[in-house]
Design brief:
Layout (H helix, E strand, L loop, with lengths): L4 H33 L1 H13 L9 H5 L3 H33 L9 H4 L28
Helix pairs in contact: 1-4, 2-4
Length: about 140
């Protein structure tokens, strides 16, 4: 049965807030995973650019004694070369965690705001917040 307009608005705000928080949680998780996995690339490219005389040319002792322009260029190239496989690893880790935590199934449909008796979820149903009554064959990805 349909909800009243005021109740519908309240439920819409609640569901929109919950979906927005879930979206922010996904972004935070992705940011943390990509930052940790890509840290070697970030460090190598940073030192390469910092010690190259045409870019930042730092006066640090390791730039003068260890890294010249050729080795700085090699670091920059190495950093960009190892970025591709590390991006794949980071995405695989994120997808694995999102699938295990079932984060992509947790978004609630706005039809819960329009009609009473919708399929609201609870924690003890095997997922963090998946909707009741959904087909067990339904998957976010294969």
């Amino acid at each position: 049965q349909p909800r009243s307009p005021c109740c519908c608005l309240a439920w819409t705000v609640l569901i929109g807030t919950m979906n927005s928080l879930l979206f922010l949680l996904n972004l935070l998780l992705m940011f943390v995973i990509f930052t940790v996995v890509l840290l070697p690339t970030i460090v190598v490219v940073y030192f390469g650019f910092q010690c190259h005389s045409q870019v930042l040319h730092s006066s640090a002792s390791y730039c003068k004694s260890v890294l010249d322009d050729n080795s700085s260029s090699a670091l920059i190239i190495l950093g960009f070369v190892i970025m591709s496989p590390l991006l794949v690893v980071a995405m695989a880790i994120y997808c694995s965690l999102a699938r295990r935590l079932q984060l992509l199934v947790c978004c609630q449909p706005y039809s819960l705001a329009l009609y009473k008796g919708g399929r609201w979820c609870h924690r003890g149903e095997g997922a963090l917040c998946c909707a009741r009554g959904c087909s067990s064959q339904l998957k976010a990805w294969v």
